[in-house]
Structures are given as structure tokens and as C-alpha cells.
Amino acid sequence: MRLRQRRRALGVTQAGLASRVGISASYLNLIEHGKREVGGSLLRRLAEALGTEVGALTGREEVVLVEELAEFVTDPVFGGLALEPADAQEIVARQPDWARAMIRLRRHYSAAARLAETLSQRLAHDATLVQASHELLTRLTTVRSFAEILREHEDVEPERRTRFIQQIAEEGARLGDVAKSVFERLSDFDESLRPSTPAEEVDDFLVGHAHHFPALEHAAEPFGERLRTTGSDYEGMLIERLVGRHGVRIGTIDDAAPWRPTFDPVARELRLPIGLAAESRRFELARLVFALEHGDVISAFAEDARLTTAAARERAREVLSNYGAGALLLPYEHFRSAAEAGRYDIERLCALFDASTEQVCHRLVTLRRPGAEGVPFAFLRVDPAGNISKRFGLPGLRLPRFGGVCPLWAVYRSFQSPGTILAQRVCLPDGREFLLVARAVLKPPRAFGAVSQTFSIMIACDAMDASSTVYGDAAAATPTLESGINCHLCPREHCAQRAFPQVLPGS
């Protein structure tokens, strides 16, 4: 529909456009009516012929709108309505702003419902609030009693009247203090319960850029090339850069609990936790180098209209600094060439670039440079409880914003064999097939009794791209697994792992 609208707006005929891009008019007609997929070089030629960007035709941001709009069927508040997930595509294509409005309302509704439930639980079970509520009622009763005495007994002697007024003033002051503490206690809830959370806004921001930022890539290239060509002591070069150019001191955090490094911009001191893995140390050093040297580029992106709060903009700066660190340590062309040469072998890439599984998988997602793209990958990170902490979907592979994904997916099965990469081919209910590649990562504790970090990293690509990867060969040797996205949306009635009844119309 976007292709057809753009062509008509320019007054170009189907035959004329087809001739310019080297395909038949009948094939172009099939594309315009959604009966043929289009991508790669043909999509680029169409965009160039129509004087627009590839993103304007693919509607990469609209893919997320479709995914989230399709999730409406899982919400009990819409029960009884004949909502078809497939209709979301047409709604977004025809009225994207209405789709955004509906999604925004649902987000606010969901956040408000969670907040109301949280506050209700606090009022009922929080011992501090229960005690404060009792104190509020007690002091209100005291103030009311003194006030009634003064109102009903006009002949109260002056000295006693003065004492009553003083007691009313003192009780009123205490009442104000108690009320203030109650409001502070009630307002002290998790940021994730607030409408339009920073995490959601940053997710939308990243999807709008297809997780690829040419300006950041360009900024990272000079020093990134030096790191690759000068030697293998990346950590030493990064420390030298921070100390010599930016006057930063490098210290340590001798504590088993906090794992995140800290940087004090006033004292110019970066403190790294003792026991931090070498690849994580290099990443944190590169992250600070990039943030200090290209803060203006990062700040320009962080002013995006999709980021409506200071918290969202700060979160975006952190994410963009991480992106810059990846661009420094895994330069685009070197990394893409190595990925293609090794058929996207994650372990090989980890060894070649001295990087972690998560760093490599993140970088694979960002290989979207026009004319030099890698295989399009989705990305997912979950913990053993099923909480999704990072997500980036693909057309046809919706990764839910709320709740978990299909329990049959390799991202969960990998927890049974930490460190081992699992490859799995799945067929979704609509017939589309995808290759899933997952590895559970265990970060050992840095001290006795400390809790270790465990999570699973998964990338996924369309089955048509599976042959470009080493994992496609392994997955082809095993039967394709019939699965869904998650239980709420899956129509497969006899799945042994079903956790919830399906909520699709007619179920």
C-alpha cells in the first residue's frame, strides 16, 4: 500500500516503475497488492526510483505498531469483541496515527491498572501505611474534638480557649507531617508502573531507527580502525585514551553486590567492579570513551520527539553509548565481513573480536547499512523467570512487549545446558518458519554467597536466511517444531506446554 501510494503521488504508472527497476508490471502489481514479499536489492531499487528511503516503504516502525495492536486480543477488557490480529496490519497501513493513539491509550490504561493494584495492595498490607492511616484518623479525631468544643461552648475561659487553639495547631502540624509521609510512601513505586515508561519510549525510538545509527557508526570509525590495526591490547589502548586525553582515573569497586561500573564526571573517575570479565571491562572502557568524545552526537539523537521525559532521554543516551562501544570494538565492515565469512558463527565471532555472546548478538542486529546489510535478526534476552529485558522483533515474528514468549522456544530450553548454543527451526501458526539460535549465559558470582547472573540470549531470522548461517545446517537435521508466539495468541489446542487458554476469536 505504501509503495502504491508513493507511486501514484508521483504520477508514475506501474509499467513505468516496473521498467525502471527491471521487473514486469504484473509482478509489481502483485507486490503492490501484498501478494509478493519484497526486500534486498529490489526494495532499494524501488526506493531509489521513487525518491524515498527504504524505511519509508518497509514501514519498519509500523511493524511494531502492528505487533502491539495485534496484542489487543489478549486483554480481557476487549473480551466479546471480534478482534482479528490480522486486521491490525490494515489499520496501521490506513490510519497509523489512530493506531498510535489506541496503543498509547492501552499503555496508559495498563499502567494505571497496575498502579491501582499496587497502591491497593500497599494500603491493605503495608505495615507503615496501616500505622500511618491509624495515626491520621487519630489526629483528625483530636482536632475535630477540640474544634467542636470551641464551637459549642462560647463561654470557655480565655486561658483554656488559648490552650485548645494551641493544641489544634500542634495536632494540625503533626497531621500534615503524617499526611506528607503517607503521600511519599504511596508515590514511591517502581518506574515501570508509570504510563509511557522510559523503557517503552526508548524501544519505540530504537525501532524507528531499525537499531542502526549511521552517524554513530561514522563517529566510531577512526578510533575503531586504530584499535583493530594497532594491536591486540584493546584494554590498554582504551585506558591510555581515557587517562591521556580525558584525564580519567581508573579505580575499582571491591563489592560483590553491585556489578555495574560507575563514573563520577566531577572527580573524573571510572570505577570497575573487581572480577568483571575482560570483554565486559573493554566494553565499559569503550563506552566511556565514546560518550566523552561523541556526546554531542548522542545528545542530538536523544532529543527525538518519541522521548518525552528526561528519564527516557537519559536511558536513550545510555543505549546510544552502548551502541557506540559496539561500533568501536566491532567495526562495521570488519565485523560484517567476518560474520558472512564464518556464516554468522557466534562462537567464532566471539573469539575473533574478544567479545561476549551478548555483544556479538547485539552487533548482528545492527548490520542494516544500505547496500551492506547482514542477515536481518531479531533479538531477545530473558531471565530464568521469563522476564524479557531486551527485545527487537522482525516482520512476522512478533515479540510481545508484555508477558513471555512460547515456552517451547530455544531461549528457554537453553537454560538446561548453559553455555551451549541451541539451534531450532520453528513453524508459527500462520505457516511462517524461523530459525532460533539461543545460548544461556551464566556470570559467576564474584564472592562467596553472592548471587550469579543468569540469562538467555536469542537471535532469530527468517527460515529463508537460515542457509546463510552455520545454525541452519544443524536445525535442518531435526524436525521443525510447531510453536506459537505465546500462549495467549497461539491457536494450537493440544500443546503440552500451554500455560493459558487462547484468547483468539472463536477459541
Structure description:
The protein has 507 residues and is α+β, with helices and mostly antiparallel strands. It has four domains: 2-101, lambda repressor-like DNA-binding domains (434 Repressor (Amino-terminal Domain), Orthogonal Bundle); 126-191; 196-329, Arc Repressor Mutant, subunit A, CATH 1.10.10; 375-507, Beta-Lactamase (2-Layer Sandwich). It contains 21 helices and nine strands. The strands form two sheets. A six-stranded mixed beta sheet has the order 5-4-8-7-6-9. A three-stranded mixed beta sheet has the order 1-3-2, with helices on one face. Helix 9 runs antiparallel to helix 10 and helix 12 packs parallel to helix 16. The longest helix is centred in the N-terminal third of the chain and has 30 residues, at 96-125.
